[in-house]
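Next up, sample data:
>
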Amino acid sequence: MSEYIHINHGDNARRDELMEMLDLTFGFEKKEEQFENLLPKLYKEEYKPAENNVVLDVNGEMRAAIGLYYNTLTVCGETLKAGGIGNVACHPDHREKGYMRFCMAYALDEMKQNMTDISYLCGARQRYERYSYEPAGERYEFSYNQSNVRRRLGADKKSKFRGVRIQRTDKELLKAIADIYNNRDFKAERPLESMYDILLTWRCEPYAALDGNDFKGWFVLNLDHTAVSEIGYADAGDIEEIAICALETSGSSGVKISAPAFDAPLVNYLSVACEYYSRSHPDQYTVFCYENVIRAFLKLKSTYQPLTDGECVLLIEGVKLPEQIKITVQDNQVSVEETDEKPDLALTHTEAMRLIGSLHSEKRKELKPECAAWFPLPLYTYSQDNV
């Protein structure tokens, strides 16, 4: 019998079928390991996970699926449409048939057609570079331990704050977190009604840092309390107490704390107070509209690092369309616009992704030094916003 292959977004009536295939594909047998508990913000029934998946059927039977979860990033007032790729899955009995290539091609084509600006995912680098994704952005990871606190602040130093596990019913705390998060220069869309499920991403545990009954900030611990994926604060002067509170609450002798480059107060404190730190890429990204993405993230970079004056014209053979853009910085003000001026540098998509986003770029040295200093851009995805 000939095979009839159909690819489209799923129907929410098929949620159970989707969840069963995903858990089987990833070998999640224990309930606590399964996708609904791993990422409740995406897979609980009310979030309609099947409708957010590109599903491939063969003769009516689900064989493969890719999660395509849209979000809106607001970066220094610029709005970017983002597409997160997750749960890339093919039924174990039907691999090596090209089904995932079909699904990825469908997802990429959809994002190009609906004016998506940027997409991100986690996964094996060489697996996804064929689909135009490149490691990019800036993430700091700090090793912060009890010895750091003791040697800097004294053997008896304890945080003034206490860490309290946030529960779904703690509406005032969740509202306080939303108010702080939504006032940032960089934020993804976090609806208040979904905030608790978002904070639980990757089976994490959210805590409020309280001074008496006063809310000072929050932190998110991973399942085994060895890492802090997110720290938020109302007042930068409270960062040290919140960091110590997170360390004490973890019950561990030390924790890894992740932070984006643009959170300057947090990075400034931890870079001095920690044992050591590393700088890496937070995710893999592909850009569909370089003009919008460069404008937004260069503005973000200007908030914590003064930009050198300069201008350059880039011709980029993008994965969607060629773009010829002029980037100008004057007195820390950023302008990015289409131009027909002669390009200073012509780039393939991969070369452009590495130039704007990679910690190392062989092409960046071909720019004028004042322009090369603008990069890499601080592309980022908070772990709790990831898919």
User: Anything to note?
Assistant: The chain has three domains: 5-116, 139-280, 287-372.
